[in-house]
Amino acid sequence: MNEGRERESRARQTARLGTRERAPIAGKAPIALSEPPALCRYLPDISSTSINTKPPAENAIVFPVAYFLMKRKTEEAYWRILVYVRQLITWDITTVITDYEIALINSMRAIFPNARLQG
After folding, report:
1. How far apart are CA 82 and CA 7, in angstroms?
2. What confidence tens digit (pLDDT) does each residue in 69-97 have?
3. What is the pTM assigned to this prediction?
């Protein structure tokens, strides 16, 4: 009976988190999401206006890529979301502008190792 409950619990977790891949980054097995968790769905009502007085490069285009509402600001939480974002985008990211959240910066470096981080 316990085995059935464990299997059901794993099925719920897989449905919530997506599929798992085993490719260690910084000692952890990354989780690749086949679809976003319920809290990571696109929110069309959230918008942003950015005023960039100092763009990264002349004629550069700067725009927000994604918004996520998070319960935790841990490195693992950021890492899971960024793995999902990485699967969605098809272009090379050259520069990422963030706040000074250490967990976010560490996760960005792991997922986008060639991008220049500003923030």
Report:
1. 28
2. 888 889 999 998 888 888 888 777 888 88
3. 0.50
